[in-house]
Amino acid sequence: MTVPNDPHLATVRPVTPRAPGCEECLATNSPWGHLRLCLTFGHVGCCDSSPNRHARRHAAADDGHPIAASLQPGEDSRWCFAHEAFA
């Protein structure tokens, strides 16, 4: 599902990934699956199919950071954690 005119898209800014992998997993030497980029802050977190789900945790802990983009090669998608839908 996609949310047309998602109001959270207003939080999207030009960002640079802050790490080459999931920031929390790198700090704890944990594995991750796919990576997601917070489009407000530049935080790199692991996706929901990863054991720790750090991208979701970041979105929940930091109000105002609901939109994340895939960092997987060949993927061009954005996810709104607030709406649980593609943005």
Topology:
Layout: H1 23-28, E1 35-38, E2 44-46, H2 54-61, E3 67-70, E4 78-80, E5 85-86
Antiparallel strand pairs: 1-2, 1-3, 3-4, 4-5
Termini separation comes to 9 Å
Q: What is the N-to-C succession of helices and strands?
A: HEEHEEE
CATH class, anyone?
Answer: Alpha Beta
Question: Number of helical segments?
Answer: 2
CATH topology tier name = Herpes Virus-1
Residue share in β-strands:
15-25%
Main beta sheet, described?
Answer: 5 strands, antiparallel
Molecular structure report:
The chain is α+β, with helices and mostly antiparallel strands. It has one domain: Zinc/RING finger domain, C3HC4 (zinc finger) (Herpes Virus-1), CATH 3.30.40.10. It contains 2 helices and 5 strands, in the order αββαβββ. The protein is globular.
List the keywords:
Herpes Virus-1, five-stranded antiparallel beta sheet, 2 helices, alpha+beta, 87 residues
What's the short story on this structure?
This protein has 87 residues and is α+β, with helices and mostly antiparallel strands.
